[in-house]
Amino acid sequence: MEGLDLVNLFVGIGLSEVKAKETAKNSNVSANLKSCINAASSVSSGETSKAHGMLLYHIATKIKPQISMQIPLLSRYVAEGKIDSELRLNAAMDYLISNPLGDVDIKAFEESCGVGVVVTPEQIEQEVEKVIKKYQAELVEKRYRFNVGPLMSEVRNNLKWGDGKVIKSEIELQVLSLLGPKTEADLAPPPKVEKIAKPKVAKPTSSNKENLELDSDSASTITELMKKVQFHKPGENFKTDGYVITEKTMDLLKEHLKITGGQVRTRFPPEPNGILHIGHAKAININFGYAAANDGVCFLRYDDTNPEKEEEKFFVGIKDMVEWLGYKPYQITHSSDNFDQLYEWAKGLIKKGLAYVCHQKAEEMKGFNPVPSPWRERPVDESLQLFEDMKNGLFEEGAATLRMKVTLEEGKLDPVAYRIKYVAHHRTGDRWCIYPTYDYTHCLCDSIEHITHSLCTKEFQSRRSSYYWLCNALDIYCPVQWEYGRLNVYYTVVSKRKIAKLITEKIVHDWDDPRLFTLTALRRRGFPAEAINNFCAGMGVTGAQMGVDPQKLEAVVKDTLDLTAPRSMVVLAPLKVTITNFPFDGPTSIEVPDFPKEVQRGSHSVTLDRVIYIDRSDFREVEEKGYRRLTKGQAVGLRYAGLVISLENIKKDASGQVVELEVKCTSSATCQEKPKAFIHWVSNPMFVEVRLYERLFQHQNPEDTNEVPGGFLSDINPHSLSVVEAAADKSISGAKVYDKFQFERVGYFSVDPDSTEGKLIFNRTVMLKEDAGKS
């Protein structure tokens, strides 16, 4: 049927011309709607009423592919007037999606959607009277400020098939009868209620507008977020859009539920050939977080099918990072645990004519329009023997692969299931010289572990059809794959190959260099695990790919550390200051709160002596407009000391560098003019190394050749690391690796693992947003 004919057909059932044209452009919906109209016409000779037309349109747009064969049944019931509302229609579709196979039990079907059930106006009136009476006292008290929504829900629950408009009208009538017309007080605006500020969460920028069913708002914690996400219930896989149902599906799901007891099961399946990065943190939180929020379990499964790139340090590093983020795997498994079963299943595919041994080279199979394999239709027995020969080492690497007869959504034809690699495996040794690919292994290991929700990033959407195809081809339990948008952070690279290049070029020191966004690097820099988890929660769960400025992550880190990192005074650029009229006989001890806004949380002692050190930035020899700290004509206060100092003399070395200031002090309690600023200081300090980190790259997208034509290595920030010798108060002398502090007026810092017993080293985690000119 041509486009204009379709539009006329759709207008004929009551759609507006605009809506009809929009519908005609959607091939799937227009095909469904045409089927609905044809089926309805078979039982009704007259024109389709607008009410029936809207219900047919509802079927066409809302029906799931798993039950699309039931379009004629639903359309006939609409045309016959047996299903006369969206409420009944939705109930009918819910019943069908819950019973997707076999003949429809008409009696159960009609009961599910209330066919023949009539709710009279008298019944509605009586039910509303009961509910009004139940809430009468509260109604009289709150009058028209009372929320009648719950009343509506309660009546609808008791009269499932009652007309919603009639129920609403009856409630309004009886409320009016009880309360009378609205008074001036009822019409006055309600008193303002002070809003409680919600915790700040990072808001990502989306690189596209596509969202999934799993869209959820952001949340302040991952648990809160995961309770919002609407995935399918265990065992109800068949209700998910796109899920493929076979004759064996329902029996396999019943067996699955017996094994799992209806428990949610997820998995985090990293490849052990690199260190986890910030994007993995989102995956960890979604997989472990969803399981935890639903009293389920999450497996940590190493996808160890690429032996030449796998190292023990990566296995250990991955587990450490998962646990650092606060998660404990239900089981730690390996894809290699299943090599024997995977091999047997591969032979099963060959026997079914669904896989074959191919001799095309890797370069011949690349791209989306490769030359079809001339070996695609080779005899089953021949492929079985050749696959055995591959296993027994009778082919050179690259001389043969096992390919599956399936086309991916992206158009890729016959993905490889097995390839030859003469590399010893860290767990199986030299037993195997053929190794399964991700496309083959992933879904089968999910099935073996009875995963309920296979949660992965959006780029794997193109593999979803092969995921379902492969499980169904082998007649095994098929989990549901859900995709979400991956997390990309600007001003960095996370590619294993590119990080390795940065290391070999000696631009960064190792995988945990604090300028990187690997999880080990972020931990070393001082990012708390809680902050990373909360940042991931702030991203929400959507199908859109996200690009995030590092400052948004740093903001969450800062909020976390503000509550957890004790304060200390450390001077990054020490300048000696001698107080000529020091008011004490010798060094004196001052008690300083660890958290100035919460003094009850503890304190530490600092020493005040005649000689102190301040930061060079807190002194100007030449006065500048707006500068609020120490100058020749401007005094400044010393934090916690109760003293205000004013300049008397400046000492310089032979090169003209200021090396010492001589000042006099007065008590801040008796000072005639309050100083404009109070600065931090140290006395009798210990000296520590402080590493100050900036962004590693200068451009937002260092891998984008349009933005950085010379490539990412040409975009390195030459000032990404500077090291200073700082003067620190001795109260931090007992700090341990990864202990975190706020250096007052400077930023948050963490003890680096390079620290030794005689020398503490601190990494700057994030700076404070404090205006240095004000304090």
Automatic annotation (TrEMBL):
<dbReference type="InterPro" id="IPR042558">
    <property type="entry name" value="Gln-tRNA-synth_Ib_RNA-bd_N_1"/>
</dbReference>
<dbReference type="InterPro" id="IPR020058">
    <property type="entry name" value="Glu/Gln-tRNA-synth_Ib_cat-dom"/>
</dbReference>
<dbReference type="Pfam" id="PF04557">
    <property type="entry name" value="tRNA_synt_1c_R2"/>
</dbReference>
<keyword id="KW-0436">Ligase</keyword>
<dbReference type="Pfam" id="PF04558">
    <property type="entry name" value="tRNA_synt_1c_R1"/>
</dbReference>
<dbReference type="Pfam" id="PF03950">
    <property type="entry name" value="tRNA-synt_1c_C"/>
</dbReference>
<dbReference type="InterPro" id="IPR007638">
    <property type="entry name" value="Gln-tRNA-synth_Ib_RNA-bd_2"/>
</dbReference>
<dbReference type="InterPro" id="IPR020056">
    <property type="entry name" value="Rbsml_bL25/Gln-tRNA_synth_N"/>
</dbReference>
<dbReference type="InterPro" id="IPR007639">
    <property type="entry name" value="Gln-tRNA-synth_Ib_RNA-bd_N"/>
</dbReference>
<dbReference type="InterPro" id="IPR000924">
    <property type="entry name" value="Glu/Gln-tRNA-synth"/>
</dbReference>
<dbReference type="InterPro" id="IPR011035">
    <property type="entry name" value="Ribosomal_bL25/Gln-tRNA_synth"/>
</dbReference>
<dbReference type="InterPro" id="IPR020059">
    <property type="entry name" value="Glu/Gln-tRNA-synth_Ib_codon-bd"/>
</dbReference>
<dbReference type="InterPro" id="IPR001412">
    <property type="entry name" value="aa-tRNA-synth_I_CS"/>
</dbReference>
<dbReference type="InterPro" id="IPR014729">
    <property type="entry name" value="Rossmann-like_a/b/a_fold"/>
</dbReference>
<dbReference type="InterPro" id="IPR004514">
    <property type="entry name" value="Gln-tRNA-synth"/>
</dbReference>
<keyword id="KW-0030">Aminoacyl-tRNA synthetase</keyword>
<feature type="domain" description="Glutamyl/glutaminyl-tRNA synthetase class Ib catalytic">
    <location>
        <begin position="263"/>
        <end position="562"/>
    </location>
</feature>
<comment type="similarity">
    <text>Belongs to the class-I aminoacyl-tRNA synthetase family.</text>
</comment>
<dbReference type="InterPro" id="IPR042559">
    <property type="entry name" value="Gln-tRNA-synth_Ib_RNA-bd_N_2"/>
</dbReference>
<dbReference type="InterPro" id="IPR049437">
    <property type="entry name" value="tRNA-synt_1c_C2"/>
</dbReference>
<feature type="domain" description="Glutaminyl-tRNA synthetase class Ib non-specific RNA-binding">
    <location>
        <begin position="5"/>
        <end position="164"/>
    </location>
</feature>
<dbReference type="InterPro" id="IPR050132">
    <property type="entry name" value="Gln/Glu-tRNA_Ligase"/>
</dbReference>
<feature type="domain" description="Glutaminyl-tRNA synthetase class Ib non-specific RNA-binding">
    <location>
        <begin position="167"/>
        <end position="254"/>
    </location>
</feature>
<keyword id="KW-0648">Protein biosynthesis</keyword>
<feature type="domain" description="tRNA synthetases class I (E and Q) anti-codon binding">
    <location>
        <begin position="678"/>
        <end position="752"/>
    </location>
</feature>
<dbReference type="Pfam" id="PF20974">
    <property type="entry name" value="tRNA-synt_1c_C2"/>
</dbReference>
<feature type="domain" description="Glutamyl/glutaminyl-tRNA synthetase class Ib anti-codon binding">
    <location>
        <begin position="565"/>
        <end position="665"/>
    </location>
</feature>
<dbReference type="Pfam" id="PF00749">
    <property type="entry name" value="tRNA-synt_1c"/>
</dbReference>
<keyword id="KW-0067">ATP-binding</keyword>
<keyword id="KW-0547">Nucleotide-binding</keyword>
<protein>
    <recommendedName>
        <fullName>glutamine--tRNA ligase</fullName>
        <ecNumber>6.1.1.18</ecNumber>
    </recommendedName>
</protein>
